[in-house]
Amino acid sequence: MDLAGLKFTGNGQLLKWRRDLLDTYTIHVEVPAGVQEVHATLDFLSPATLESGFTAGSSATEKMAVISWNQVLLYPKGWTADQLTYSASVRLPAGWKFGTPLPVSSQSGGEIQFSPVSLYTLVDSPIITGEYLKVVPLNPGQTPPVELDIAADSPGALDAPKEVWDAYSNLVKQTVGLFGATHYRDYHFLYSLSDHVAHFGLEHHESNDSRTSERTLIDPELRIEHASLLPHEYVHSWNGKYRRPADLTTSDYQQPMQDDLLWVYEGLTEYLGEILSARSGLWTPDQFRDELARVAAQLDHRPGRTWRNLQDTADAASLLYYSPKEWDSWRRDVDYYDEDELNWLWADSIIRAQSGGKKSLDDFCRIFHGPPSTPPMVKTYNFDDVVNTLNQVVPYDWRGFWTERLTNHGPGAPLGGIEATGWKLVYDGSRSEMMRAWEDSHRAINAAFSVGLFLKEDGEIEDTIEGMDAARAGIGPGMKVVAVNGRRFTFDVFRDALKASTTSKQPMQLLVENTDYFRTFNLDYHGGEKYPHLVRDESKTDMLGDIIRAH
Ligand SMILES: [Zn+2]
Fold this sequence. Notes:
There is one protein chain. This protein is 30% helix and 23% strand. Strand 1 (3-10) and strand 2 form a beta hairpin. A 5-stranded mixed beta sheet has the order 14-15-16-18-17, with helices on one face. Helix 4 (229-235) packs across helix 6 (267-279). The protein is an alpha+beta fold. It binds zinc ion (ZN). Zinc ion is lined by residues 203, 232, 236, 266, 269.
């Protein structure tokens, strides 16, 4: 879509081309006899306004840019990504600095020539560049070196307190300690802080392309909300890039991938990323537990599991990443992130219990992802390899465990791990620090666990939870709450009405606008505000505390 100006020449002559009718990413070029070399030129039309879409989304501002090679290159058919060699170069705006895992062969002013690498390595090695670029070594004097390369839209956004840099240094120590080996030559966190680029995290073998709001590192609420992003993407260097599902491993970018093992690729990464956030101090133990409570509560209000099992969220990943966000609880989303965080916690608790506290999921990681240290390489696996390695750590019916976890239809979330590690999911009227941070940064109210509504500050209904009071009354996403109990909607008016519901005999009355029409809905709800928390189950030991303790 964003490829333009495409021209091919041979012996100085313009060559004819036509797109393949079945595979629209393939271009057929007519090469006349006698032409030994074909030259291609093209432009990438970088999105001018804020657009999502991973590396195809907004990637450049006045002050910074991320260059993703997959957006700016072609490759000839008939070779694997390992077999093709590329000599890449870039010209940057005057004075801009850059960070990348790609080896530099020469540099003159803003012209940078990189060493020849395979197509695979090139696509796996983006560049971050900007006027304000801060490089923070995270393990000075150690090999392989790890650094943060942060580009921001303002110098002030880079002025984070010392404890932030210390926590990211701890992250490297804790993560390398967890796996016991590395599989990169050096590693770069390429971190964009901007309100004008697409926000996401994308893993690479020797780097990650992570992008959040400009003020993430200097605003305490944004900081805790996004704390687990970099840990998650870093873990992917081991789980995803080094160890990769066999059917997700393709020889070039044209081959379709099969997503059935994303519950390991993403699910285990999500679990490890979150516990490493706590082990490294990016989160306090309370913040970690509050986030776990939010995840568990959200999954416990997911009626879509009655028709779609967890395995199907992985199998349908290529659809679900781009699906609308409305009716999420009924459609289900890419749940193999959050739900498998709960499942891997459960697996961790089983290993700890079965081994009498001698083994943990850390041991699985050391066998599966650990020594010996290597440069970037791919070691593929399948379902049996996961089951066999778990059995190597501690014998158990792991095949049965994962088959049940992937195919059951609930009704509720898999809370076995939370319960086995000494905690209980409860709801009360107080918002945790994590929930407050989420609501503040989204300018929204999460009333999912009371009446089943997500509301924006103007009353717009982002989503409803199927089966909860609002949805049962006929309210749906896309509508807008105009008034509550006869008074114009504000967050405070809505919260006060929820609080008052516990003593009121009257239903909660919502005046709702839907496609220019107004209607009143009565919710016979008397439960007050409800927010999730984890509380200790004193009858069990606090295994969760051991899981998130720094090593
Ligand atoms: Zn991931």
